[in-house]
Structure formats: C-alpha cells, structure tokens
Amino acid sequence: MKKALIKLSNVSKFYYSKGVIASGFTKISTEFNIGEFVAITGESGSGKSTLLNVISGLDTYEEGEMYINGEETSHYTDLDFENYRRKYISNIFQSFNLVNSYTVYQNVELVLLLNGNSKRKIKQKALDLIDTVGLKKFKNTKVSKLSGGQKQRVAIARALAKETPIIIADEPTGNLDSKAATGIIKLLSEIAKDKLVIVVTHNYEQVEEYVTRKIKMHDGRILEDKEIKKADQVEEVELNDFKNITFFNRLRLGIRNTFNIIPKFLLVLIIYLFMSISLLTEYSSLKREEYLEGTYGSNYYFTNISKDRIIIKKNDKTAFTDEDYEKISKLDNVDYIVKNDLLLDNSVTLYDDQIWLYGSTNNIKNFKGEVDYGRLPENENEVVVEANSGDYYYDELRDQVLSSDLKLSDTTGRDIKKGMKVVGIKYKDNATDYGEGIFYVSDNIEAALGKSVNKYFSFAKVLFENSYHDSNDYINEFMIVPLDRVPKGQVYISDDYSFYCPRENCKNRPLTIEVSNKYYDAKLNLTVTKTYYKNNFATVTGFSDYESRNGQIYINTNDYNSLYNKGNYQSSVFVKDDKIIDQTVKDLKGLDLYTLKIKDALLRPSSVAILRIIRTVVTIILVVVLFFISYFVLKIILKSRNVYFATLRMIGANKHVCKKLLIIELLNAAFIAYSLMMALLITCKLNIIKISFVNELMTFLTLRDYILLGLILLFISFLVAMKFAKKLFKESAIKTIHEEV
Ligand code: ADP
Ligand code: MG
C-alpha cells in the first residue's frame, strides 16, 4: 500500500501558560496526500491554526505520532524540522508576510536566492512564476503599493518558487474582498493538481466549488472529514535538492538590504558617522596628548633638545661620507642635517663686562622663520639668537645686548672670536622648551667652533723621549696648536722641553701624538725640527705673546686635521614635521644608521606615566560606552528588521544565513559611513573645503591610524550585528511574526 505523505495518529497539542494547560487540539488522526486540496473550517479557537502549525513543523506536538512519508517525527530535533520545512512546506499567511520594501520580483527572487539557485536560473524562473499568478505588469512594483489580492498572489508565487510538495495556507483570503478571494482560491486549486494544498477558511461556500476534501473542526477535534471530489492521483513525491545561498548572492542580498529602506539606511548611517567621528576625535586627542608630552622635559647631556632632532651614527662605526649625507637629505621629512652634531650640545658664551649670554650653536642657514626683534645677520660676525621670551637678557636688556660688541668663547672658556654682534632675537614658540638659547652663526664661526669642540671631546697624549705627556689645554703643556708655516711631518716645540733630550738637544728627535675619542684613535709620527725660546718665538711661530703660549707645540694644519677633524661620526637630522618623526626614524634605520630621537632622551616627571594610564583607561571606557550607545540605538532602528528576518526564516533561511546577512548589512553601512568621513577629511586636506577643527584632528594621525580606526569601527559593527542576531533568534519565527504584525 502507498505511504501517506502526512499521517497523524492520535496527535495532541497542549499549551502551557502560567501554570495552566490549554489544549490546542486533541487526539487527531488523519492523513493527507498529494493532489488533495483540503479545506479546514470551524469556529474561532477550534484548533485550525494549531493543527496547521504542527503539520508545518513550526510547532511541536506532545502526544501521538506524526509520520512524514512514513517516517516517525516524534524524535525530530529543531534542525530536523528545519530541513523538513525546507523540503516539504511552503506557507501562505493571512497577513501575507512579504518584504514590503522589496518589489514583486525581489520577493519571489528571495526564495530562489536562499535556495542556492544560480543568478541566471533565477531570473527566468521568477518571471515565469510572476506570470503564473498574473502579476507580470507589476513585477517591478514595490509590494507596499499593491492591493491585498495582489499581495496574496505574490505570496503564492513565492510559495511556488520554493518548489515544495505541500502548501499550507492559513486563512489566505481573510483580508480580501470576495472577488479577490475567489481568484486566490482558484489559483490555489490549480496548483493543487500536483501538490497537497491545505487551506483554512471561515467561508466554506467560497472554496466549496474547488476543494477535494472538507475537514470541520470543533473544540480541538475533527467533527467532520468528507471527500468532496476525487483528488488527482500522483504517484511519486518529487523532492527538491536544496543548496545553500551562494556567497555572491548572500553579499548581493546583504548589500541590497543596506539601502532597501532609505530612512533606516540614513539613521544607521548617522549612527555610524557619529561613531566614526567620536572614535577619530578621541583617538586624535590621545595622540595629541602623547605628542605634547614628548615635547617637554630636560636632559643634562644634550643642550639642543629640539623635538625635531634625531641623532644618527653609522652602524659600521665609520665617519659619514658625502654620499651618506646625500642619501639622508633625500628622505621625505628631512629638513636639514647638522653634520658636526657635537656643536649642538656644546655650550658657548657671548660676553662682555656686563652681558653673559649662554647657549649652543647652529648654522644660520638652518634658521627658520623671522626674527621677532632686530634683523637677520649681514656678515660673518653677526648672530641671531633663538631664546625664551622670559629670559632677562632677551627681555629687559635686549637693547643693550643688540648694541654691544661681544666676545665668543668655546666650552673651555677660550676666546674664539672678538667683535661679535647679536643682531636679532627670535622667541621660542614652544613655551615648554626651557632649553638654552641657540646662537645661529655663520659658516666660518661654525667651522672654528667645530674644531674646538672636536678637540674638546678628544683626549691627546704626546709620546716624547720614552714617556707620555698629557696634552693640557689649560696650562699650555704639550698643547697641540695648528700652524700653517710648519711643514708636514714636523713639530716645533718649546726649548723648555730640552731637558728630556740627550745632550739637551731635541732637534731631529721623534715625537708621536696619540688622539682618542668616542669614535676613533689616531696616531701621528712627527720629527722635531725647531725649538723656540723667548727671543726667537716671533720668528719661529709668527706669534708675539710668548709668555701666554710657552709650552704649546706647533704642527702643520693638515696634520692637525688628521688628528682632530677626521670627519663626522655623529650627526643630527632635523625633520620638517615632528608628528611623523617615527617614520623618518624608520627610514634612517633603513639606511643602516643608529638613531636616537632627542624626545626619547628627555627626562620627564613621573606624573606623566600616571596621566598616560588614566588617559588609556578613559579611552577604553569611551569605546565600550560607544559600543553600547550604538547598540541600543541600532536596536531600536533595527527593530523593523525583526519581521524581515522572521519572514526569511519562514521561507527557508536558517539562522546562520540570517546572521550573515545582518552582518553584511551592518558592515556595509559602517564601511560607507567611514568612507564618507574619510572623503570629508580628504576634501579638507586638499583645502577644497575649510574646517579648521577637522584639519587639527588630522595633524596627529597617520595612514596606519586611519586603517586601525576603520577596523575598530568594523569590529564594533560586527559585535553589534552578532549581539542583535542572538536576540533576534531567541524567539521562534512564527511568534515574532504574530507579535509584530
Ligand atoms: P483557530 O485557528 O481555529 O482560531 P487556534 O489554533 O489558534 O484556533 O487555537 C486553538 C486553541 O489553542 C485555542 O483555545 C487557543 O486559545 C489555544 N492557543 C493557541 N495558541 C496558543 C498559545 N500560544 N498559548 C496558549 N494557548 C494557545
Ligand atoms: Mg487561526
């Protein structure tokens, strides 16, 4: 004997609510087969809907057994019922349950998409079905603009698209006028030829002409079950093989849903824009604080503590070559290079009887901007000072400073130059920089100071007649002085050193100078060719002040340079924009250089570390608060989506697919909002529009920050979608629809 498609044997359904058991229907036994068009009637509350829900697998039963194609279902899990619904059941509802914001075509297409059909196949199939239900003219009309009868036709087309053997319609004509209702019933009867169609109706007369069987229910039981006419015999039930929605179609659908309801899209967009801007503002101010923090502090070793300065050395410990400097100066953010870096941290003094100006030096070529007082230098003895505006000399006494002839002395206190003049003052714009003043000097002064500083940072010993003598600059003993008239390889010494030599004659005796400093050791072998004493001092050396110079040893200038000015082993790079100094550090490291940002060498008060922790905590709290605000606002906006997702589930989408669609929808909106904000930033950056607040925000952010912020926004959006999806699927689809409609 042939198996029934659906068979119920003594099935009962109870409802438990508030401790009371209510009966949906009791001990129903019957069967349904393909080809039948069954009408179920009965008064309200008699159990019709409950019976349909159990047959549809939307609701469970408590007693008896329901068989599908002969298979028992009492052990079925949620997933089993989901698969059953997918393969067997299409529902048509009194309230249509269409996606109102979609067109007729899109509603039909939706089922085909969800069942994993290819795009090419979908189009023809959907159009054929729309034609079958007589809505060809309306295929591109939004469902919300259709009449009730037309809506129910769309629902039928959609049910047919699912290609299931069973169509279950709960009062499909309840909301329709009689003419439209008759049309729907006729349509269903035509479908029923190779399907099982079960219809619940209040109005039996309307369906009488078409149905093959009538079931009348009363108080949860079948009162009457009567064959009206012979049903067509259909041998085999053909079940469709369902695939899952393809990745591409899922993406398409998710994106369509983003824009589908314009007001919803705009609201979501506003929320995401708000989130993007809050995140950007907070992050940027965090960066700003960090930046400001980096610009104050002090250091005992470095005098020039400019935030733009990076100290560099070669990793192979050799001196810089011209090619090295060439490569460095070609880097993006490099402003200029101070080749002899020692000068920057070497204090010099400009003074006379009343004035005592203290500071480090830099080349006038590196002077930026304009002077606040006085003028720029016009000759090599003129100097511009960059100083703190609170300094007594550059404030009250500035006129006297500008009118005085000053002497320049180096670190050792030795005078380098007389007749120096300060002609201009520039006040430091960074009020937190309490460093020394900076004297901007000419090339010649810089060179002179450079030599003195190189000597200052080196230690020299003189090996003469088998003993070492420390070269002492303060008391002239073996103090090494360059002198052009001394031939290469020779040295002139004081006659006072004669007692070291055999027979007190030092002529042609060897003398070796050994110089060592942080960077290199140098050695120079010389021969004594002349000795000087008071009477021949002027003729031998060209100097007249024998008393103050006696003890010095004179060597050729080139020899001197080979000892002290062997090139630069340490230089400093100054950047144009210190906000992106880290990139420059990276570039420099790429050239095989050791780097030290002066910012990193500064000592800072310990309160800075505490402030940093507080700031980080505040930022984290803000992001969390932002997440919840956006979640709650989005929840309200997305409430309208409940019905949509419940509808999707009713027509065959599982939770997994719905969740992915929701994630795509929200990520897409977040992406668009962030892109819009980026577009705004770019137009500001290109000065197409001017919003100073926006420009200020951007100064502290790099491309990496923008990418990071974008990812954070997408991640928050993802979390919101996950949380919302979880809530969405707590309730069954049928319940959601009943509550919302
Ligand atoms: P019909 O569709 O014939 O109007 P229903 O199937 O909706 O009737 O209801 C059958 C019986 O089950 C009624 O007594 C109704 O009160 C009860 N019932 C239906 N749904 C629920 C529910 N969710 N909770 C409790 N009782 C319910
Ligand atoms: Mg009902």
Could you please describe the fold and organization of this structure?
- It is a single chain.
- This protein is of the alpha/beta class.
- The chain folds into four domains: 6-242, Rossmann fold, CATH 3.40.50.300; 249-290 and 608-740, no CATH class; 309-315 and 322-453 and 577-599, no CATH class; 458-564, no CATH class.
- 40% of the residues lie in helices and 23% in strands.
- It has 22 helices and 28 strands.
- A seven-stranded mixed β-sheet has the order 21-20-24-25-23-26-22. A six-stranded mixed β-sheet has the order 6-7-8-3-9-10, sandwiched between helices.
- The chain is rod-shaped.
- It binds adenosine-5'-diphosphate and magnesium ion.
- Magnesium ion is lined by residues 48-49.
Structural class: alpha/beta
**Biggest sheet, spatial arrangement of strands:** 21-20-24-25-23-26-22
The CATH superfamily of the largest domain bears the name: P-loop containing nucleotide triphosphate hydrolases
Distance between the termini: 44 Å
Measured as a percent range, the helix fraction is 25-40%
Write down how many β-strands occur, each being a DSSP E stretch of 2 or more residues. Answer: 28
Overall pLDDT, averaged? 88
Percentage of residues in DSSP E strands:
15-25%
Low-confidence stretches: none
Largest sheet: 7 strands, mixed
CATH hierarchy, class of the largest domain: Alpha Beta
Coarse shape? rod-shaped
Q: What molecules are bound to this protein?
A: adenosine-5'-diphosphate, magnesium ion
- Number of helical runs? 22
CA radius of gyration: 47 Å
CATH architecture type of the largest domain: 3-Layer(aba) Sandwich
CATH topology of the largest domain: Rossmann fold
